[in-house]
Structure formats: C-alpha cells, structure tokens
Specification:
heterodimer; A: 291 residues; mainly alpha; MetI-like fold; 0% strand; B: 541 residues; alpha+beta; D-Maltodextrin-Binding Protein, domain 2; Dipeptide-binding Protein, domain 3; 6-stranded mixed sheet; 16 helices; globular
C-alpha cells in the first residue's frame, strides 16, 4: 500500500486517461477543439468581427454568413469566434489567477498556522460573504466597465475557494507519516512544503480549476449581460446574448442562439471534466475502480 | 470536498438554466407570429410600461416618465388643448396661447402681464372628501417652489435666479392670484403640466410637511390624496399600480374605471404580452420590436412627434471639443439616414438646431437637417487644425440602441480620422458625470420641454447649472436677458431666431435624430391621447 500513497494522484489520472476514459477524453478533446477554433478562427475567417455593413443587417444564416449577421450587419461567425476567445480566455485568466493566489495563500495558511492562518481565513471568509457577481460589480464600479475589471473581481472571489481547500489539504497531509518522517530526517520547511506536500495538492488544484472555469465563464457572461463586462463594440458571449435577446422574438433567433450554444457547450464540457476528474484524481479511486 | 461539489452543482444548475432559457425562448419564438386574442372585457385596462418609477412627487422628481405617471393623480388649473390626428387618437398642442381652463374656469391677466388671477370651480373635493380649493392650490404651488428641485425649475421655465414667481395668494376659496417678476405667458404651459399639480395640504402636513430644498420621503411612494382623474388604490414599487376612477374628480371622468399599470422592463415579456393582448397599451418598447409588432394582427402602433432628440452632447469647454470646426466636422460625418432607418427603424426624423420641431419657437427654415457629406467633413477637419484626434464618447449601455449608435459613430468618424473611444458608464455614474459636466462627449436620449425659449435658456445660459455642456457663446447672454423680459411670443421670435443662429454657428451638439413617441396598443383600444405627461384618463377600450 505504501506505493499507492506515494504515487501522486495526478500520475494515476494521467495513466488512466491514456488507458482511455472515453467521457473524459471526449470532453478534453472537445474543449481543446473549441480552444483551437477560437484561437485560430479569427485569423482564418475573412470577416472582421467589428466591421458594420448595414445593408446586410439581420441576415439569416447563409453561405456568405454561416451564422447570419447582427443588427449592425456584422458577421456573427466572426463575432462568435472573437467573443468566445474573449470569454474563454478571460475565464482561463480568472482560473489561473485564482489558482496561483489561492495556492500560495493556502500553503502559507496551512503550513504556518497561527496568526497567518487566522488573518488569511478571516480575509477569505469576508470575501466569500459577497456573491461573485456583487463583488465583480463593486470592482467594476471602482474601476470602469470592461473585461479587465470583471476578471479582477472574479479572480478575487475565486481565490478563497482554492485557499480554503488547499489549507485543509496541507493540514491533512502534514499530519501523515511520510511527512513526519521527512521532518524527522531534518528536511527544511520549504523542501517539505514544495517537494513532498505540493505534488499531492495538484489534483485538488486541477479539480478546483475545472469547477471554477465554468462558473467564471458564466459570471463573465452575466456581467456582459448586465452591460458591465465587454464594452461595445467588443464581442463577448454574454454581451452578444444580451444584444440578441431583443431580436429573439422578432425572428432573428441566431443573434442570441449561437453565442448561447457555444457558451452552453463550453460550460458543459468543463462540468464533465470536473466531474470525471473528481473520480480520477481521488487517490481512493485507485482501490475502488479497476483499471 | 463540499466546495467542489457545490461549485460543480452551481455550474450544472447554471448550464441547465441557460438551456431552459434558450428552449423557452425558442418556444416563444415559434409562437411569436400567432396572437391569441384573449378576452379583454373582464380584466382592467392594462398598461405595460418599461419604466422603473422611483418617485410619485411631481414637485421633486425630474424624469419625464415619473412625472407622467404621477400627474394622473392630480388636477391642475389649466390644461393643454389637443388635436385629433386620427379617429380616437389625439395629440396635445404645446402652444401656451391655446391653453384651456381645467380646475380654473377662467383667468385674467393684469399688471402688464405680471399677474394672473384664476377663478376656480367651487365646492370641489379631493377623493377623500377634503376641500379642493384655492388654499390647496396656493399650498401646492408654494410647496413646489420651496422644495426648489426639478419642479421649481420647470414650473418657472428655468427662470429661477431670481425666481419668476414672486408670490401666490388665495384671497378666497375660489380665487388664486399668481404674481410674477415679469410678464411670461408661457407660465400657463407649465401650470398645465405635472409641475402645476394640486396636492391635499392635510395629507402632506400629516406626513412630513414641506422642507426647503428637501424631498418629502413619504410622497416618493404615496400620493397626497387625489385631485385628478384617478386614485392610486394599490402600488407596489417596481412591480405594479392599480388606479381607480376618482369619484370626486372635478373634470370629465376617466374613460376606464380601473387601470392596472405593470412596470416591466424585460423586453421579451413586454413583447409576448403585447402579442397575446394581455396588455392594452405597451410603452417603452425598442423600435425594432415596435416595427415587428406593427406588422402583426395583435397590435397597432401609435406614433406621435415628441420633443425627444437623440444627441451627442459635446463639452463646449473640453479639450478638443472646444474646437468649433471639429464639432462641425463631426456633424457632417454622421450617417443620419442609416441611423434613422436601421437603428430607429424609421421611428425618427432629422433636423439640426437647438429647438425641436413642433416646439413653440421652432422655425423649419432656420434648422434644416444636416446631411452626410464626407468631403465637407474632411475639409472642416483640415480647417480645425486637429490631427488624428481621439474622442471619448460616454454612453449608458443599458439604454436600448445606445451601443449600436455608438458603434456606428465609431465607424463613421474613423473615416475622417477621428478615433472614438466608447466609454461605457453605469447609469448612475453616467447621470452624475453628465450633470457635473465631467465628460468630453456623451450620447443622450434627451427629453425636452416643448417651449423653445425654455430650452434655449437651459442650454445657453453661461454657468447655469442646467447648462451641462458649458456652452457660453459671446453675445448670447444679452439676447437671453432680452428674451426673459419679452412677454409677447411674436416679439420673442426674432430673439429666439438670433439665439438659434448663434447655436448653429457653433455646432455645440450633434443631433442624430428626433425619436418619435411610439405606443403599441391592442386593437380593442379605441381612445388614446399622446401628451408629454401621459393622461391615462383619456385612454380606453
């Protein structure tokens, strides 16, 4: 059993992915495909996302405009590609910023304890008193409407979740025999923390990132929906859905439907990944699920 | 790991929610072309209004919609005359010389036009039985002046320093005398508006009284009895209000015994309820929705010329926007026709000047529309001496159509070398910054008063608090003084013309178009009247 404990869960997960968890591989593949399309697409597709052409206003999907055009005659495919890049990219920034900040503070709080732990716990509890949208709105009010302000607000709100989880994990792992042994042979605090404890936290962080990503993208969309996210003429999925909703019932369904569909697919895929990752990265899964 | 589960659950719920919304929207879209024609006889007359009312006190509140709603509960000394534009549909005439008696049966003008003596109907009461008399009128006008807010400014047509109205007297129960510092016949126009409302003094004194320069908080969500055609019998702020006919109203009774006003800001809801005839009248729909509904059997669209220009206001003292040639160049680089046809969906028209067409004082020959002329715009840009400028355009993105117009202007002005930075502000910030004049340019849906002289005074008086653009054109102040002291509208016109000419020479504002008033009504509605203050008493099936 000692081998099972020493092997990091991420290693187990990688091995199992390679062996073939079809749902997870499918979701990861789908997300990778979306990422590839939104990164490369705007450079390949010949329409400018912001170029207005009023003579083509509200055109239905066609060969010329596969997803139709919006009320200013802008090509919707170009805007969906650019908008998805903005939304998913901003979601990724929120996830990474939250993970970095949350990991550092979680490690510090869990390892050092005492006053540092008390202050950081108090700080994170205070932040979590606010709904994420409210906090993002407060940051937007303090700065100015736009994606950067929303990303800052959502990042601030996301890091406490990482911090609390990692703090608990650090405390749990620090009490295990192998850490105590390492300590007994005279290893430094830093070495114990980063060489022996941190690898065991990677699965937790990755899992948290997958969960936060979907929530962040939806919150970004909600802020765009409220007019506080992307500002005109910048394309962003939430803002596009807002613009499109007024035209939904007048027959121009494509304006809201396509951005909504992309959002739905991206969030569903990350939800599936988070769900599968929880099972895969759980060290106990090694004993429950046969390879 | 409860957090992981919780976070995942939230994402799943959100994703499912998004799917449900899309599905529901798709279902609604599928049914959008049918009209159910539900029965209307048994339900109260229903008005769906895309507005959020925050105050019911016309003496205090500024927004036009709030004044419109609150004005239904209060009578006034006089009323505006109306013209029938089509069978059952009327529109007001803003000409002060055509004002008609209302609670006052007649009035006499004396002291070279500076004193108005009104004779009132006798024996009238508020809805609760309290006497409606000259004392109530005096109390109401004094209250409006004492609060000193938008009501006082509007009641005196902008002449507040020193005040136009020097005193109000009530020598007996049926006589009210208004003394003015100078003759000003347009006072009758403002007395006919919400600012001339007659409140029940007993109610107000019982609920906080009158404080100088301060609103009465109770009146933000209550009415001081009713002297008007309707009584507010139920009010849930932000949701709905129920109006019932005032049995003691001194005038012609309201057409409908009960009116339910729903305050709904969700456009899809407004649209679906209009299609299903759940609303008899729908107000505040975006133009593309109005256009769509105009082609359906469920609805008919009523339009009216209203003093509501859509403008880009330039800070006259601001860096870059203080250049007259630059401002003028921008006016010739606006795709006016495209904006009217593609953004306003035809519910608008063009003009260029400080006085909106139809206002008292407007002269069409002086204010012809400017046209899209890229060559002229480029030439003016060259003359302005400005190179590769960046213009900050402040917008309130929550207002329908604003982002579209800003985007179009950004593209259009790029062609003359002007980079537009669209600066979106939350509604409260937008209002504050604009009122404080802290902006370079701002895209506005204006709501003007249909009195040209008043508008000129508001916008051209140097250093006036109402002059948000900081416009100060040499030679205008003597003309404004002259205008303030000229009572006769005919004698005012040459002065107004001179002021308009000075405004045009400086192009301080870009008038994109004048938005028309639109209301979507059910075919069952047989009577509808448009006025700056909506008079629901004249609407009915």
């Amino acid at each position: 059993m000692a081998v099972a404990v020493a092997e990091a869960p991420i290693t187990v997960a990688r091995r199992r992915i390679v062996k073939g968890d079809k749902v997870l591989v499918g979701a990861l593949g789908g997300l990778a495909l979306i990422a590839l399309i939104v990164i490369v697409g705007p450079f390949v597709w010949h329409y400018d996302a912001n170029a207005t052409e009023l003579t083509a206003q509200l055109s239905a999907p066609s060969a010329e405009h596969p997803l139709g055009t919006d009320n200013l005659g802008r090509d919707l495919l170009a805007r969906v590609l650019t908008g998805a890049r903005t939304s998913l990219g901003a979601g990724a920034v929120v996830v990474i910023a939250g993970a970095v900040l949350g990991s550092v503070t979680g490690l510090l709080a869990g390892a050092l304890g005492g006053m540092v732990d008390t202050v950081l716990t108090w700080l994170t509890n205070s932040i979590l008193c606010f709904p994420s949208i409210m906090l993002a709105m407060a940051v937007v009010m303090a700065l100015k409407p736009g994606i950067p302000a929303v990303v800052i607000g959502l990042s601030i709100h996301s890091f406490p979740w990482y911090m609390r989880t990692i703090r608990g994990e650090v405390m749990r792992i620090a009490a295990l025999d192998f850490v105590k042994s390492t300590n007994a042979i005279g290893a430094s605090q830093g070495r114990i923390l980063f060489r022996h404890i941190f690898p065991h936290l990677v699965s937790t962080i990755v899992l948290q990132m997958a969960a936060v990503f979907g929530a962040a993208v939806l919150s970004l969309a909600a802020m765009g929906f409220l007019g506080m996210g992307a500002q005109p003429p910048e394309a962003e999925l939430g803002a596009m859905i807002t613009e499109g909703q007024q035209f939904f019932l007048t027959g121009q369904w494509w304006m809201a439907a396509f951005p909504g569909l992309v959002l739905l697919i991206a969030v569903t895929l990350t939800t599936v990944i988070a769900d599968r990752a929880r099972e895969l990265l759980d060290p106990r899964g090694e004993y429950i699920v046969a390879d | 790991m409860p957090r992981r589960i919780e976070a995942r659950g939230r994402v799943q719920r959100s994703a499912i929610g998004a799917a449900v919304v899309l599905f529901a929207g798709a279902l609604s879209a599928c049914g959008s072309t049918s009209s159910s024609g539900s029965t209307t006889a048994s339900k109260p007359f229903t008005v769906n209004w895309a507005v959020n009312i925050t105050s019911l006190d016309p003496a205090f509140t500024c927004p036009g919609d709030e004044n419109s709603f609150a004005s239904n509960f209060y009578g006034r000394l006089v009323k505006l005359s109306t013209n029938e534009t089509s069978p059952g549909i009327t529109q007001i005439d803003p000409d002060p010389s055509k004002v008609q008696p209302d609670f006052a049966t007649k009035w006499d003008v004396s002291d070279e036009g500076k004193t108005y003596t009104f004779t009132l109907q006798s024996g009238k009461k508020f809805d609760n039985g309290d006497p409606l008399d000259a004392a109530a009128v005096k109390y109401s006008l004094d209250r409006t002046l004492k609060i000193g807010a938008c009501g006082a400014l509007s009641l005196q047509l902008g002449i507040t320093q020193p005040p136009l109205i020097t005193s109000v007297e009530a020598p007996n129960a049926t006589t009210v005398v208004i003394h003015m510092r100078q003759a000003y016949p347009a006072l009758l126009y403002s007395l006919a508006q919400s600012r001339g409302s007659i409140y029940n003094p007993k109610e107000i004194e019982a609920h906080g009284g009158v404080q100088a320069n301060s609103p009465n908080q109770w009146l933000q969500s209550h009415t001081a009895s009713s002297s008007g055609p309707y009584v507010l019998s139920e009010y849930v702020p932000g949701n709905h209000a129920v109006l019932t006919r005032n049995p003691n109203y001194y005038g012609t009774p309201a057409l409908e015994p009960t009116v339910r006003v729903n305050f709904v800001t969700a456009v899809p809801t407004l649209q679906v309820q209009a299609q299903n005839r759940e609303a008899d009248v729908t107000l505040g729909l975006p133009p593309q929705v109005v256009k769509n509904l105009s082609t359906q059997a469920c609805c008919k669209v009523i339009t009216a010329d209203s003093p509501t220009p859509v403008t880009v206001s330039m800070n006259y003292q601001g860096e870059l926007t203080n250049n007259a040639k630059f401002r003028e160049a921008l006016t010739y680089a606006v795709p006016y026709t495209d904006i009217i046809n593609k953004v306003a969906y035809g519910y608008g028209d063009s003009y260029y000047g400080p006085i909106v067409p139809g206002m008292a004082g407007y002269k069409a020959s002086l204010e012809p529309a400017r046209t899209y002329d890229l060559g002229k715009a480029k030439q003016l840009m060259a003359e302005s001496g400005v190179n590769s400028p960046t213009l900050n355009l402040m917008i309130n993105p929550t207002a329908p159509g604003v982002s579209d117009i800003a985007t179009l202007l950004q593209s259009a002005w790029q062609q003359i070398g002007v980079t537009v930075n669209i600066d979106a502000k939350p509604p409260a910030d937008f209002t504050t910054l604009f009122n404080q004049g802290k902006y370079q340019s701002a895209l506005l849906f204006e709501n003007s008063t249909p009195i040209g002289g008043y508008e000129l005074r508001k916008k051209l008086t140097c250093d006036a608090p109402t002059n948000n653009q900081h416009i100060c054109i040499p030679g205008t102040m003597p003309l404004l003084d002259q205008l303030n002291n000229t009572a006769d509208p005919a004698a005012q016109q040459p002065i107004v013309d001179s002021l308009v000419q000075k405004w045009l020479e400086n192009s301080p504002t870009i008038i994109l178009y004048r938005a028309k008033f639109t209301a979507v009504v059910s075919p069952d509605v047989k009577h509808f009247a448009y006025a700056p203050n909506f008079r629901l008493a004249d609407w009915g099936r």
